[in-house]
Hints:
By secondary structure, this protein is mainly alpha-helical.
Amino acid sequence: MLDDWIFIGIFLLLAPIFPAAALLIPRLIAPRKPNPLKTETYECGVETYGETWVQFKAQYYIFALVFLIFDIEVVFLFPWAVAFDQLPMFAVLEGVLFILILVAGLLYTWRKGVLEWV
């Protein structure tokens, strides 16, 4: 019984070390050759003109979040659709309920005008 907890303890000790090492090792071995050209602001390799800090509309972020939600929906629905003929009726009804909740969210965002690209 105690042997099982030893592995968990080792994991808890090593878990912070790997991310810390991934952050510290490049800082230690990376070359440091600062120069003014490297610190300039650029967009896709092209120098910017005018103000470089531009405030984007929040609608772009909301549109991306809605896309992400419905993209994750596919991840949950794909296994359900593959095993559709082998599922009991309760699981089918749960899947239909999940789809109805997502459709309600889609209708809500549609009526709010989030999906209109302005």
